[in-house]
Amino acid sequence: MKNNFIRLTGGNTDLIIRPEPAEILYWGKRLEIDEITEADLLSLERGVSNGGLDVDTPVTLAAENGRGYWGSSGVDGHRDGYDWAPVFKTKSAVKNGEVLLIEAVDEIAQLAFKTEIEADGNGVFKFRNSLTNLGEGKFTVNRLAVTLPVPEYADEVLSFYGRWCRELQENRTCLKHGAFMQENRHGRTSHEYAPNLVLGQPHFSQQQGEVWGFHLAWSGNHRIRADVLIDGRRFAQLENLYLPGEIVLEQGESLSTPWVYTAYSDCGLNGMSQQFHRHIRSRILHFAQPIRPVHLNIWEGVMFDHDPAHIIAMAEKAAEMGVERFIIDDGWFIGRNDDFGGLGDWFLDEKKYPNGLKPVIDAVKKLGMQFGIWVELEMISKRSKLYQQHPDWMLRLDGYDQPEERHQYVLDLVNPDAFNYILERMDWLLGENQVDYIKWDHNRRLVQPGHLGKAAVTAQTQAAYRLFDILQKRYPHVEIESCSSGGARIDFEILKRSQRFWTSDNNDALTRQKIQRGMSYFYPPEVIGAHIGGAPCQTTMRNFSFDFRGLTALFGHMGVELDPVKESAEERQGFAKYIALHKQLRPLLHSGESFRLDHHDDTTLINGVVAQDKKQAVVLISQLDMPDYKQMGKLRVPYLEANATYQVKLLSIPDYIKQGKGGHLMKVFPQWVLDNFAGKPVSIRGEWLAKAGLTIPVLDPQSAMLVEFKRL
């Protein structure tokens, strides 16, 4: 190799790689020096310690055990029991702009290994590895991973776990020895383990500390781990988790890992999140229209009980509240009066809709709203005409009695006949009806996911991607929401094919606070489906004030879940109030830089958005439970322009707090709050707001307040 290193720069991050053996030497804050010398590189040589091999073993991009590397290998496979310990030698390393392609080969094992690395100006680096079988005979691949090093002081792991109605919960682990590992075998991205990982120096927080963020862009099974070798080196490893025998390469065939997206920050989790958000906005998202319309979904209002006249009445009330997109959910097709049958029979139920969908769609359009509809294309019910005609179209292993989930099974999209049938039914739905949006659901896990007797999670996932791709190409005006029993299919790869995530089936505002915070680490507000739910909440039966429900749903892609015909005028006015507030702030929320603020009390969550030009910011302070202290401390906002003066305005605080009702926790409010109540302007310098701050009034449990900062 001519060059002994290659430097890639993206945003404020540098990545320095030695091509042979292909190894990352430095990944961190952008270096000020223009030229890296041989002496600089020699300073990183590790030497050889006693008690081990007589040579130093690098952690290469392939992470080969055949080199004497004792960690988790990046390549695991064999050719009928042979060629199981490859060692790759780099043949070429070509840098084209901020894209690097490194190609290596093992002539003995007859395998080729390729690494693709892409940087962007936002600071996000993408990695993907590929393996090619060059030799005669089949090569079985057990594992193929992306392996990336982090510094020896990255001692803390942040991962995300969850379940239905409680997705994306934070989990912190100290990583001193051994490994952290999570495996998802649910056949979809899953509620249980999101494909996200953060490594960082101890006690990193929203605003402080060095962190390295990782996301595996894949909607099937996965394995993610973070390891500490006994010599202190640390690395992250991310991969598609293959089932036995799932991947076999014929001569000349190749296999690639999913893309791994990464971001480095030296200013805590906020810096990491902002880089991911900018990358998603500039490289992944594609909207049919730029403004994210406010939704009303009828599911919690009527469920399977569809009456076109009542639905049109719902649409009329929805339009009065300011709703911009009206969605018919589950229950519109034949055999779907409950969740025991009908999936796969994508034909309109003419008993429910004797005049077709057109009268409803026309009414929705006349009211100035877009029309959306629910589908679950990857599923099949045994109680359906489709299953009766084609029982072999079910994804399964013959001879076994596969357990149900939600009384349904998975349709084998790897089967071309099943795939083409679904495509034909969607051509009818989208081609013959003025549909602007589909809510695409996926309500069960994959058990014994077999196609012609062989494991097929990867093939099923890729077939689903193809279906998305074809429909998006044929109907570019139709936007798609990725839903999977709520948030069980949330990842960058499905986001390339959709415009919105249904974050959770749970609209309980208290639980949603932490679910949406978990989402915010990797996704910008405009793709986070956040709905104002009814009272009581359908999933938890808890009651919250309208203000708390409305403010919780504000920082996302807003929607509402209710039957507005049945709701009181007061409740509808409350929905309309927060829909109007969301529309007022929407340009800022969906284009600005999101941030979360550190706070000494875990019962208090603070998050906000600041405009790119720093002219405006809004901050939401949410009090989840009784505060730990009699006073809540200061609100310090470090992302404003230091030398500018800002008008501080209280946009929302519950009336019962303002009026001192209900055993409120304060006798006298801070002066800036009293001035806001009196309509007096409050003007404060940006530096003061960043360093000294504003006193936060003591909030009641399960309440929130919204503060706006406008540069004068």
TrEMBL record:
Its EC number is 3.2.1.22. Substrate binds at W164, D329, D330, R406, K439, W440, D441, H442, N443, C483, D505. GO terms for molecular function: alpha-galactosidase activity. Keywords: Glycosidase, Hydrolase. The keyword Hydrolase applies. The keyword Hydrolase applies. It catalyses: Hydrolysis of terminal, non-reducing alpha-D-galactose residues in alpha-D-galactosides, including galactose oligosaccharides, galactomannans and galactolipids. InterPro entries: Aldolase_TIM (IPR013785), Alpga-gal_N_sf (IPR038417), Alpha-glycosidase_related (IPR050985), GH (IPR017853), Glyco_hydro_27/36_CS (IPR000111), Glyco_hydro_36 (IPR002252), Glyco_hydro_36_C (IPR031705), Glyco_hydro_36_N (IPR031704). Residues 23-249 form the Glycosyl hydrolase family 36 N-terminal domain. Residues 609-704 form the Glycosyl hydrolase family 36 C-terminal domain. It is an enzyme of class 3 (hydrolase). Pfam families: Glyco_hydro_36C (PF16874), Glyco_hydro_36N (PF16875), Melibiase (PF02065). The active site is at D441, D505. GO terms for biological process: carbohydrate catabolic process. Belongs to the glycosyl hydrolase. This is Alpha-galactosidase. It comes from Mannheimia succiniciproducens (strain KCTC 0769BP / MBEL55E). The lineage of its organism: Bacteria, Pseudomonadati, Pseudomonadota, Gammaproteobacteria, Pasteurellales. The gene is galA.
